[in-house]
């Protein structure tokens, strides 16, 4: 019985010690935690003309105060790289959803948008039409 009690106390002590080490210390030294306050935003590193396919070196991720962020700004460069600019984006401008094309449809495929009244998203391949993929987005029904 004494061995079980000692084992339980050892497990609890180990859990408390690991939790303390994980959540204590300088936040800047922990992976995934930024040393500067603020939020990430995708910013154009140079002017991107409308119709240009955005490349990795054309955008960067910058930290800025939440009050400086424009509505619908992208927070990850991977979301814009490979897409075409729909507007002229000046160097230093934050890149927003209206500045780039929607989802990229792979070459040789087609996209169709349908308005639905379902609460569950559905998607899949259309085997009857080679190269077609069907995605039905989620639309929340009013209660």
Count of individual helical segments: 1
What sequence of helices (H) and strands (E) makes up the elements?
Answer: HEEEE
**Main sheet characteristics:** 2 strands, antiparallel
From the 3D structure, determine the CATH topology of the largest domain: Type Iii Antifreeze Protein Isoform Hplc 12
Range of helix content = 10-25%
End-to-end separation: 57 Å
Structural class: alpha+beta
Number of strands: 4
| Rg from alpha-carbon coordinates | 24 Å
Strand residue percentage: 5-15%
Q: Could you name the CATH homologous superfamily of the largest domain?
A: Antifreeze-like/N-acetylneuraminic acid synthase C-terminal domain
CATH class of the largest domain: Alpha Beta
CATH architecture of the largest domain: Alpha-Beta Complex
Low-pLDDT stretches: 26-33, 136-143
Give a quick set of tags describing it.
two-stranded antiparallel ribbon; two-stranded antiparallel sheet; alpha+beta; 3 domains; about 140 residues; disordered C terminus; about 15% strand; Type Iii Antifreeze Protein Isoform Hplc 12
Plain-language structure description:
With 143 residues, the chain is of the alpha+beta class. It is 15% helix and 14% strand. It has 3 domains: 30 residues; 69 residues, Antifreeze-like/N-acetylneuraminic acid synthase C-terminal domain (Type Iii Antifreeze Protein Isoform Hplc 12); 39 residues, no CATH class. Strands 1-2 form a two-stranded antiparallel ribbon. It has a two-stranded antiparallel sheet with strand order 3-4. The longest helix is centred in the N-terminal third of the chain and has 22 residues. The C terminus is likely disordered.
């Amino acid at each position: 019985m004494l061995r079980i009690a000692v084992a339980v106390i050892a497990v609890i002590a180990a859990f408390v010690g690991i939790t303390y080490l994980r959540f204590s210390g300088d936040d800047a030294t922990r992976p995934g935690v930024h040393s500067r306050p603020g939020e990430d935003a995708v910013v154009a590193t140079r002017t991107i003309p409308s119709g240009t396919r955005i490349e990795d070196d054309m955008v960067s991720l910058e930290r800025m105060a939440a009050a400086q962020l424009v509505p619908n700004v992208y927070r990850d460069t991977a979301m814009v790289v490979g897409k075409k600019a729909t507007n002229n984006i000046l160097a230093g401008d934050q890149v927003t959803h209206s500045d780039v094309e929607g989802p990229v449809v792979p070459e040789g495929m087609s996209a169709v948008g349908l308005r639905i009244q379902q609460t569950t998203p559905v998607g899949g391949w259309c085997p009857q039409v080679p190269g077609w993929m069907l995605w039905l987005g989620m639309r929340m029904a009013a209660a």
